[in-house]
Amino acid sequence: MTSHPRRVLLIALLTAAPAAGIALLLLWRGDFSQRVQWTATFFIALALLVGLATLHDRVVRPLQTLSNVLAALREGDYSLRARGAAAEDSLGLVYLEANALAETLRGQRLGALEATTLLRAVMAEIDAAVFAFDSDSALRLVNRGGERLLGQPAERLLGRTAATLGLAECLEGDTPRVLERGGPSASRWELRRSAFRQDGRPHQLVLLTDVSRTLQAEERQAWQRLIRVLSHEINNSLAPIRSLAGSLRNILDRGGADARTDLAEGLGIIGQRADSLGRFLAAYARLARLPRPTLRPMAVEPWVRRVAALEPRVAVRVVPGPEVVVNADGDQLEQLLINLIRNASDAVAETKGGVSVTWRSQGEGLEVIVEDEGPGIVDTANLFVPFYTTKPGGSGVGLALSRQIAEGHGGRLRLENRKDRKGCRAVLWLPLEDRESGVRSLEPRTPDPRLPTQTLNRS
Predict the structure, then answer these.
(1) How far is it, in rounded angstroms, from Cα 113 to Cα 79?
(2) What's the whole-number average pLDDT of the chain?
(3) Residue 199 main-chain phi, psi, to 5 deg
(4) How many CB atoms lie within 10 A of CB 414?
(5) Alpha carbons 149 and 181: distance in angstroms, whole number
């Protein structure tokens, strides 16, 4: 196949040939001497050859320049530029665009190199083990944390499968979750896994974070709080029992006609304290055993109106919101809202204020708001502390259970004092998948119960 420069030269030759042929025909048929004829013929041929050579140079050199620039870009060399770039010339405009492309690619490559350098520095310094496995479960990337975890340098780890490295369980199961590694003195690691593609092939990125110290600190604090609460409650029961036991011993030693009556009264008080302690331990057992919620589509408005109508002490005002359907456990959310409304009704018992419930869209979720016109929250620091309550006869479990129900649905619960007037606002946020359907299917983060009615621990 004829090349592009040859085709251009052929077209130029065909264009110039008629004029040259006519000139030579006139020259050789005219009344000119042979010297003039040969001289003129030489110069006509020379001019034709010089023109063709110049045209070849004008065609080939720009293409070679562009080819060199594009080849350099393909090889990753973005420093080469084409000379003669100008916006007013068509060829110069091509040069200008090629130079602009080279500058853009150079900036992108520089940014990518800087980002890669930063990423490698971060991966090297973070106190977490990072692994990347390809579709064949072969290790393709590991940082220093991964080397320390496996006790071998990267050169000996790369290319080995997850099974041979003892990391096969990291590529299976749900995430995030906590794993134990290390035998008897096992440390606990939080596993997170995500998928990405490199060169069109699927890979898995595994992140293992040592959470042993954090979990130990949290467990220690939880045990301290539990022991403090249990000690307080048990001492509250043991102190009067100890005092009554001493009094009953004195009554037995003293005897008399009233001894039987005093003994019956003292034993009755001891029985009441034992029952109270039993109720406390039962409440703690309910707080500790929380099954998963059963998720089903549930319309919000009927749920709110149904629960609001259950409160006999206060006429709860329902402010209508948007028509929304959530994917949730109806029994658990009903219990949660019962707790919130009952808590609000307790708060307005003295102030004779009102209670209102409404719902609205908030971000990618739904907010259910319960407002009262009571005295407000006094002690905000202990709102979610189990068994803490300022109400006579309160168990101090309701708010902790309600928050766990909310978190089990992927939501959250907060209580705050109202800013527009005196009172409290309880806000339950539940996630929604989209605004149109308002339905989301999710795995609960913590299990939650179908619980009997509790009173929230709020003043």
Answers:
(1) 16
(2) 76
(3) 55, 35
(4) 13
(5) 10
**Whether the Cβ atoms of residue 360 and residue 435 lie closer than 8 Å to each other:** no
**193 Cβ contact list (under 8 Å, min separation 6):** 170, 171, 175, 204, 205, 206, 207
Measuring CA to CA, how many Å separate 62 from each of 54, 92, 140, 415? 13, 10, 44, 73
Contact present, 396 and 384 (Cβ < 8 Å): no
Residue 305 confidence (pLDDT): 92
Of 306, 304, 298, give the one whose Cα is nearest residue 319. 304
427 pLDDT tier (thresholds 50, 70, 90): very high
Full-model pTM: 0.42
The owner of tokens 């928050």 is: 403
What integer is the mean pLDDT of 287-312?
A: 83
Whether a cis peptide bond, with omega within 30° of 0, leads into 5 is no
How many angstroms separate the CA atoms of 125 and 295, rounded?
42
SS3 31: coil
CA distance 417 to 108: 51
Taking 80 as the threshold, does the pLDDT of residue 56 lie above it? no
Tell which residue, 338, 315, 310, 287, has the closest CA to residue 455.
338
